Amino acid sequence: MTKSIVLASNNKGKIAEFNLLLAPLGYDIKPQGEFQVEDAIEDGLTFIENAILKARHACAQTGLPSLADDSGLEVDYLNGAPGIYSARFAGEHGNNLANNELLLEKLNGVPTHERGARFHCVLAYMRHKEDPTPIVVHGSWEGRILESIEGEHGFGYDPLFFVPECGCSAASLPKEVKNSISHRAKALTQLLTHLTPKVPF
User: Fold this and answer.
1) Is 26 left (phi over 0), alpha (psi -120 to 50) or beta?
2) Whose CA is closest to 186, among 82, 71, 28?
3) What are the residue numbers of the active site?
4) Residue 151 class from Cβ within 10 Å (0-12 exposed, 13-18 middle, 19+ buried)?
């Protein structure tokens, strides 16, 4: 029997990744947009706070278990920016091109050894809106920022994120490779140890 979970997002890239990873285990990830749920107000100061806020909001609006992903890029040279503001780094939420261009601008002339960065992914799973013990897991993915865009896959900052163990950008990796080593994959691996078989649906 397929188990439905509402994803507190309408990001097509994230929805596709979650379904690819979770569908074989019997989960059907539905975007909150299918339930006419508007985005929660993300006024937390950390990935963890925002993930819980989004998960609780989706639960409250749909009555279904929900999963929220708050993720972003941390760049050493920028003292951790763009961080929780990754999706709206350049102002407009979800404008990948503008975000990437601004990141390149801020790192213009910065040498390779100072361009260290990592992706973070915090997942929060809530059984219902008053769940007192939400499951919260965290995955990270180390790399560095390239000096120009590379690759045609992925989304967000993937074209600028160099993956040392693969020798290319995240946007150059086949989906199956990225989905096995990314920050989101690492967080999901942790989540699944909690979901099965402890969490009732």
Assistant:
1) left
2) 71
3) 70
4) middle
| Placement of tokens 């609006």 in the chain | 61
Residues in the chain: 201
DSSP secondary structure, 46-90, as one string: SHHHHHHHHHHHHHHHHSS-EEEEEEEEEEGGGTT-BGGGGGGTT
Q: pLDDT of the chain along its 201 residues, tens only?
A: 678 899 998 888 778 878 877 787 788 899 999 999 999 998 999 999 999 999 999 999 999 999 999 999 999 999 999 999 999 999 988 899 999 999 999 999 999 999 999 999 999 999 999 999 999 999 999 999 999 999 998 889 999 999 999 999 999 999 889 989 999 889 988 998 887 654 444
How many other C-beta atoms are found inside a 10 Å radius of the C-beta of residue 106?
A: 15
Residue 42, sorted as left (phi over 0), alpha (psi -120 to 50) or beta, turns out to be: beta
The pTM for the full model equals: 0.88
The CA–CA distances, whole Å, from 53 to 59, 129, 137 equal: 10, 10, 15
Instruction: Give the relative orientation of helices 12-22 and 183-195 as an angle to the nearest 10 degrees.
Output: 50
CB 89 within 8 A of CB 99: yes
